[in-house]
Amino acid sequence: MKRMLAIALAALLVFSLTACGGTIEKADTPVASAATGAAGETAQPKQVVLGVSMGATTMDPAHEYEWDAEMMLHSVYPTLVTSDYADESKILPCVASEWVISDDGLTYTFTLNQGIQFTTGKELKASDVAFSLNRLKGAAGNSSFLLSSVESVEATGDYEVTVTLSEPNPALLNILTRASAGVYDAEVAQANGATCDSSDAGQAYFDTTSIGCGPYMISSFNSGSELVLVKNPDSYFPAGNVDTYIIRNIADSATQQMELEGGDLDFALDLTADQTALLEGNENIKLVSFDTMDIFFLGLNASEEYGKELANPTVREAIRYAIDYPGLCALAGNGATTPAGIIPKGFLGYAGETTITRDVEKAKALLTEAGYPDGITFSMGVIPDMAPDGVSFMTLAQKVQADLAEAGITVNIEPQEVAVYLEGYRDGKQQSVMCHWGPDYNDSNNQLAFLPGNTVGLRLGWTAEMDPELAELGQKASVETDSDKRAELFTEIQKQMDEKNAPAVVLLQPGKTWAVSSRLKNLTVSAAFCFDFVSLDVQ
Asked: Is 34 inside a domain boundary?
């Protein structure tokens, strides 16, 4: 048996997805606690205000599927295991103290820490873990797919949970670090409408009440508007020095910048590169830069019905050679690069930066070879106001439009409302889209979504029947547990996708810069845009 002995819980347990990407230095002088200040005076409670572009729409772990919610929920609903900031490949204990993986990779047995207490006053038991995970799997929420390889989750003792898989999944532990897999009081959840099937009606309760065991708990929540988190005084896990977090939804990045400069915000999480540049030299603001694991891509529909000329792989190759990748990265700023494939830098199987050099004449020749000497015209769906990672969809779309025009390719940009964009994209009916992809969990298996027959592949009209060889290769990679063999499979997958001019054209992997108040200390940021709520301090 492979025994994964847990490392003792650290004094500052983190609730992030990935390893650290940047830090702000420690406080120069000790800061008094909220209880006692200098000379015996009572100190003011420490409060931190964040500005985010979209805001969480739910605080229900089983139904959340947004980065903003993911970041906040980690501090409210701890998971069985968590990730190490110092080494993103290292899985640390959290609710579980240790775990054992069977030799065939199908059975995971977790031993739980004892004495963990929910905000309801009840001790956390294995039955709570089993219900929380079974609800995530069965309640038909947005994140249910994460546990698609899980056959069953059972409480096999008061403090023992056994997870059985239908097939090996080397990404399972990484998946279990997601806030979606957070643990809560099962009895109270069920009493308030939560079930493990599609009849689940517990979301409204989770949006108003915390029944977790994390260092923070929900004080108030207005969907898409504001979330207030306060210290959990009875948490098994340390809560650090910040008493209150206020997370405000501020869609306009310019407003975030203005309020940060005015002192109304401590964090501005979604500024563009131009906006952060304007803050350089401001002694009241610090800029924290770090890598992301996201990618921007141009999605080209591979189906003849909706993609039309884009269904031709040679046409897609022409488009790839017509694009100015360094120019796109320059627009994005923050150290953006263009990966050679669907695996971003930081993941197993990363193939380095692209070797494609823009060649307009080659692009024209490829179009002629495909039967379109006079060029082609296609539409591109774009959400005009969206700028994930501080990179504007519209700015990238206009740059791609100008690049392709030089090769005789006309792109009609179609600004769309989010709902219209998503409906067309998810149904596979958009001819092309400007798109952003953030991994659901910290493992290369997540990127298999781009293969034919998988999530992104299907949205781009690329079915498994169109390329059964590549689809099968993806299936092999998804269950392979040997790291070296996995890396080889991901290398081969990306090679074949390159040769076949896959419908997802990777444009860039962005960096990220947060602008924060200089009064914040001990800020540790992860590559997945989570930060350690516990270690943060404020002067």
From this structure: no
